[in-house]
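I am writing to request your help with a piece of structural work I have in hand. I set the record out below, with my sincere thanks for your time.
___
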Amino acid sequence: MFKLKKLIVVLVSIYLFSMSSIVFAAAHGHAKVGSGPNPYRDCGIGAAIFPNHHIAAATSNVIWDLGSTAVTSATMSPETCSNVHAKTAKFIIDNYENLIEDVAKGEGEHLVAVLDIEGCSSSRQADVVTMIRSNMGSKVASTEYSQKARIDKAADYYHAVTSASSSCSV
């Protein structure tokens, strides 16, 4: 009987912690509520094991620990959840010089490829490219930009792409 009560207390504590983390992130974050990854589908152990099978990922996360790890990941480090963003980051690191050249021209195969990775339809890509160009143009024009390490420049590009490509799903 005591073990059952202890288990219930632990489960309720995990649930309350998870929910308070979500509320804290929503209240203090800069992104609008619901704009982040789905914790059960895109985060946690389930997403790592079943990246292309959302139902299996969600089921696995719930079975593993009632989804608390997935919810914590989504709340504390949402950038680690989506497999798409990991592919985007790798592509940018591997092709940064070509991408910065393409964005300066406003077109190019590497630019199209990174937007394809982000799931941006061809009908939205022109608007997204305009947003990326605007964002990166202001960064490149700053005096500090030339002093930045390549990885920091690539990180700036990554943030410009992921920010602009969020409008692809609208």
